[in-house]
Design goal:
Number of strands: 15
Distance between the termini: 32 Å
Bound molecules: nicotinamide-adenine-dinucleotide
CATH topology: Rossmann fold
CATH architecture: 3-Layer(aba) Sandwich
Shape: globular
CATH class: Alpha Beta
Strand order of the largest sheet: 3-2-1-4-5-8-12
Number of helices: 14
Order of helices and strands: EHEHEHEHHEEEHHEEHEEHHEEHEEHHH
Radius of gyration: 20 Å
Oligomer: single chain
Structural class: alpha/beta
Number of domains: 1
CATH superfamily: NAD(P)-binding Rossmann-like Domain
């Protein structure tokens, strides 16, 4: 697909990476409220063309699409020309892939983001950037103790509220470095050029339209594997704790930040499920086994580079700035994703389809 699809009458919001998991949910939400959207994506993530087809079927001419790679600055700048605001979600998204090909990771995540910022600077439009909790590194300063199936932070404040933005940056792995450097560039464009920019440092987001793999999108990957009867490899002991956030809550946060961007410009916020939605890999697997009634075959491998034993976002800064709060409890959200996967057999690998009637 190339060139604009659809004709937009009023200036659109650009969603770069709008065919991806979070981007397509954000695009759907904006379009559903009558906001025209320009999706910019190079469709490099396997499966995401299905998200684009779904958006086009549902929203028709209110959606415009440009198949552009963010590494191509002149094409990107031309494509962004009509935009009144930019959500930037396109990325090389996996730590594992960044260790295999750090050059591509750098080009996409840092230089690509720089290209987005330069285009936004010419246009004078806001940029909201999808960053990651990986900018905080593996957090060796957070002492943890082991319980049966999860790690518990020793410090009471972190147990109660999670990890706040002030913990400090500590880039680790090429992905952590490229996303972290991009995160800092986005914030600096508010300082240096007065551009209204903001950063959301995300924990694990999950939900419909996620093509989760072992490398990225592990909640969907667990469910898809279980539903298709495939084994799951756990790296480390599975006691790692994460706060997971349903994509509808993430979308609400992105839209909230854009609506208040003049108030929050130049700031970074954690975005995750917070302590109420903290779960270990082992607990999530038990829940999925109970929910689906399937047996889970587990394999074990060594802990991955840069893996955090405990990361739960302290989201109080975002809550105070936007009045935002995660609405979907994790069990309900995971059930929603399981149901979506069961309804959309085409999104499962071919061998899985026969297991899900
Ligand atoms: N999903 C999560 O849990 C999570 C957590 C932390 C951060 N993030 C960040 O959020 C953003 C969105 O994540 P997602 O889970 O929706 O990922 P995704 O892979 O589903 O979406 C990313 C989209 O970007 C597109 N893309 C990749 N390289 C591109 C390029 N060079 N030019 C143009 N488009 C390109 C892909 O085709 C894809 O549609 C990413 O920046 C990711 O790093 C996601």
């Amino acid at each position: 697909m190339s060139g604009p699809r659809g004709k937009l009458r009023k200036a659109p919001v650009a969603v770069i990476g709008g065919s991806g998991f979070i981007g397509s949910n954000l695009t759907d939400s904006l379009l559903s409220d009558g906001e025209p959207v320009l999706v910019i994506d190079n469709l490099s993530r396997p499966g995401v063309e299905q998200n684009l087809e779904w958006l086009a079927r549902k929203h028709g001419f209110h959606l415009s699409v440009e198949t552009v790679d963010i590494r191509d600055r002149s094409s990107l700048t031309a494509a962004l020309a009509p935009a009144k605001a930019i959500f930037h979600l396109a990325a090389q998204t996996a730590v594992t892939t960044s260790l295999v090909d750090p050059t591509a990771d750098l080009d996409i995540n840092l230089k690509g983001t720089f290209n987005v910022l330069e285009a936004a600077r010419q246009l004078g439009v806001p940029v909201i950037f999808a960053s990651t909790n990986k900018v905080y590194g593996s957090l060796p300063q957070i002492a943890v103790r082991e319980a049966d199936d999860h790690y518990i932070p020793c410090e009471e404040g972190i147990r109660a509220n999670g990890v706040a933005e002030m913990i400090g940056l500590d880039f680790c792995t090429p992905y952590g470095c490229s996303k972290g450097a991009a995160d800092q560039y986005v914030l600096d464009y508010a300082k240096s050029f007065g551009l209204p920019t903001a950063v959301l440092r995300m924990s694990c987001i999950y939900g419909p339209r996620q093509f989760g793999t072992e490398d990225q999108g592990w909640v969907a990957h667990f469910l898809i594997s279980v539903l298709s009867g495939r084994p799951i490899t756990i790296y480390g002991d599975g006691k790692q704790v994460r706060d997971i956030l349903h994509v509808s809550d993430a979308v609400a946060a992105y839209r909230g930040v854009l609506s208040k961007v003049e108030d929050v410009k130049g700031q970074a916020f954690n975005l995750g499920g917070g302590p109420r939605n903290a779960v270990s890999l082992r607990s999530l697997l038990s829940e999925i086994a109970a929910m689906t009634g399937r047996d889970i075959v587990l394999r074990h491998d060594q802990q991955r580079t840069g893996d955090q034993p405990f990361f739960v976002a302290d989201t109080r800064k975002l809550e105070a700035a936007l009045g935002w709060r995660a609405q979907v409890p994790w069990r309900e959200g995971v059930c929603d994703l399981a149901n979506w996967l069961l309804r959309h057999r085409l999104h499962l690998p071919a061998e899985a389809a026969r297991y899900v009637a």
